UniProtKB/TrEMBL annotation:
GO terms for molecular function: ATP binding; phenylalanine-tRNA ligase activity; rRNA (uridine-N3-)-methyltransferase activity. Its main location: mitochondrion. InterPro entries: aa-tRNA-synth_II/BPL/LPL, BMT5-like, Fdx_antiC-bd, Fdx_antiC-bd_sf. Its EC number is 6.1.1.20. This is phenylalanine--tRNA ligase. Belongs to the class-II aminoacyl-tRNA synthetase family. It comes from Machaerirhynchus nigripectus. Transmembrane segments: none annotated. Keywords: Aminoacyl-tRNA synthetase, ATP-binding, Ligase, Mitochondrion, Nucleotide-binding, Protein biosynthesis, Transit peptide. It is an enzyme of class 6 (ligase).
Amino acid sequence: GAEVVFSVDCTKLKEYFLPGEREFDRIYFNFPHCGRKAGVVKNRELLACFFHSCAEVLAEQGEVHVALCNGQGGTPADRPRREWHNSWQIVAVAAGAGFVLSDVQPFKAETIHGYKCTGYRSQDKSFCVEGALNHIFTRSTPALCLTPVSCETQLGSQKVSFQVPQVLVDKINRGFLELNSSHPVRTIKEKLSAGLSQAFPLQNISSCLPLLHQGHLHGVCHSSVFWIALSPGEAPSTEETSQGLANAVWLSQLGQDTDRNVQGCPIPKQFYLRPSLLPHAQAIVRKGALSPGTLHVLSGPVFRQCRITPCSMPVFHEMLIVLTVSRGTENSCSQVLVDNIKTTTSSLHQTVSGVKPSISLQEATSFGTELNEFAAFECQLGEIQHFLCVGTDPDSSGSCVGVIRTAPDELKSSELVVVSASLNLDLLAMLLCGISDWRMLWTSDRRFLQQFPEGELRLFKSFSLYPPSYVHDVSFWVPDGEEFDEVAFHTLARRVSGETVVSIQLRDSFQQPGTGRRSLCYRVTFQSCDRALGCREAAEMQLRFREEIQQHLGVTLR
């Protein structure tokens, strides 16, 4: 009862079907080939035109199935795998038309009734389909068009609005921790809270935590935070902010770095997005607003400028647990707190993956593993007693996902001590759910959250397999007498690429004899974890990146 149409040009599919007939759920192309002895380049061109044609007639949730002989696709699924330049590069070709590879399955001709492979070199001859693979493609979410976004927050007694840094536009106010969210970071936070509440009375105090801090940072690298400029009309006076911010640990004395408002009152110039919830907790502690023996939990997104690595996040969700206890009991209470976190985390990991994880508490003075970006920044905030590390390999020391602090000087009372634990919920979600790239936690593709129904934690299965990567180099002269800000360099790459730069590596550093001028060469790798990224789009991003670093970092391109 099916309609069969012959002599259809696969590169012009919409010409053969009326508009009402173009919403295909499946499009199959078994063993495409230009014919005769066509090389890989011509066959790539055929596939490129085919995928663009599919985009015009495929339903929104439809699939494109392409079967290729073993080795042709150029993906790790091929056994053996051809060299990239000698393959059809099917994932990169499909990405140019807005498709991602969502699954790869063996092509089993014997399961298809009446199927016969024929057409070897345009002849009535069969060809080898042993090891052939069926590649299943789905539509990618489109690239985000990030327009400037303003955000409103409380600063002291006044509400102010500010322009969100472009690199954070798609990450601000996402609501992952809200009650109606099924995001894994919220599920993990709720599971940890439930476990902790069995050992201590627990109170959540996360509402109305301001996004902005004011003043100068002490002990924290200036380039590690997102600085915000408020317009003169938005900047509150000292009187308006002093009440709400007097207890913040990073406020500086007003001095030469101030302007004055129309009343002659000094106005601090510097505002920045909160890089930690610790100052809020310390302010609450100093006010004596915490009940001894009760766990107080603060949670919310925090923002830090950092270098690009698979686990370095410019924004993540922090869960800060604060406990005031009687002096002399801090070690035992801290141990109960840590044991509870370890037990809950281990139980969650075993439920999700069936494997017992490696969870260790390492003293800060003897921490043997190289600090990740999260742990390194936490060290700048103040003294740390222990690092909490979680690993999926029982033999490894794991990655730092939390820090434990004991602060006897936070309270005016000599009888109480503050114990706190800061946890990176995003890193925990990655480790527990098998998510290899932090960017996936922030994807707008609904296929991510569909894997975590009603807050259930599961092992994540990527809907974008073997995403293509594109490598570009950039070389430039550094301004004379200036230290090159590598964090700012990485942040510009994040902004220009929409977080599709996955790696930046220093390839060469050269100092010119005689003049002393210094030249740096970096290798920039573009790769998206959740959407289609074609080579042309990556090349355009590289060109914009070159322009941006020249304009904002003052370098001279080579």
